[in-house]
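Dear Dr. L.,

I hope this message finds you well. Following up on our conversation about the binding site, I have prepared a predicted three-dimensional model of the protein together with zinc ion. For your records, I am including the exact sequence and ligand specification that went into the calculation, followed by the structure tokens. Please feel free to forward this to your student if that is useful.
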Amino acid sequence: MERGDQGSRMNRVVGVVLSLCCLPAGLAQPAETTHARHVIIIGVDGLSIDGVVKAHAPRIHDLMTRAAWTMEARGVMPTLSSPNWASMIDGAGPEQHGITSNGYLHPMVSLQPMCQDSEGMFPTMFKVMRTQKPASRIAVFHDWPGFADLLEKDVPDVLQHEHGAARTTEAAVKYWAANRPDLMFVHLDNVDHTGHDSGWSSAAYYRAVDEADGYVGAILDMLQNLSATDSTFVLITSDHGGKGHNHGKNSLAEIQIPWILAGPDVAPGRIAASVYTFDTAATVAWLLGFSPSECWIGRPVLAAFRPADLVTRTNSAERGCAPERPVITVPATGSAGPGAEDLLHHGQHNN
Ligand SMILES: [Zn+2]
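The resulting structure of the complex is given below.
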């Protein structure tokens, strides 16, 4: 459905509801703004929950005051980069897309994908968006070269690798300002590098998070300067956390990831539902008005758009759709994760 071609807001809303039957009763998409809607995903490689909470990170913490966020989102196992970035952009897990390693010591794809095109690729959100909205402008800037192996290289208008997070951000900001893409993905790698070199939760690691926070700030400032904040969703998330000097094993420190979404009509505060990294693609589809691939298992994070007490669990199932994810009533981490107060008065690291 090409949203811009719709004659009326009512037709648009009805069309979206029909194509995404899983919308709970009473919940429309976020209100249309007077401008086109944009999504920017900032994927900070190796950004742990601990890193978000304990680093100074003033821009991310400030963004969280007006964002819907969870510090208990989960990636997938194994907690390596490629399986997790793939799951995020594929709307599905390794069981579906088959990517189980970074491809250094083992083949990157160890299972035949459940869905694939003629080149063997599982459909990414970039491909699904391009197919349904061919005029879309899609941009990907990545600090880690391996990211390009996870998507259909001919789909984005720009797929650009830069050396280092600073250059990656600079290129992304310059491109966005000139072209205002509908969807832009920015991958930053400095935090993961420092985690491997100095250890997750080291002083150097928190400094690296602060550096990434500055890159987030540069993107937010760009939007502010272009008066585009009110028409742009910004999602800050990561592929995995880490433990010691590594990641890849099965611990909450490695598999829990931040998921912080700001933008028009987002309900600020902690998201009272479980969120998985493969929900990101479905959420992007919902925000930008295209239908998720039938190959995907993720669901849009609708709880980010309304108060938790309005979350309904059953009526979508009665309409033949997958039920919405359950509201979290018991903290999943044991440590309960940080509350908003903890984060906003962030207890900064002392080391
Ligand atoms: Zn990674």
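In brief: The pocket of zinc ion is lined by residues 45-46, 81, 192, 239-240 (CB under 6 Å).

With kind regards,
A. P.
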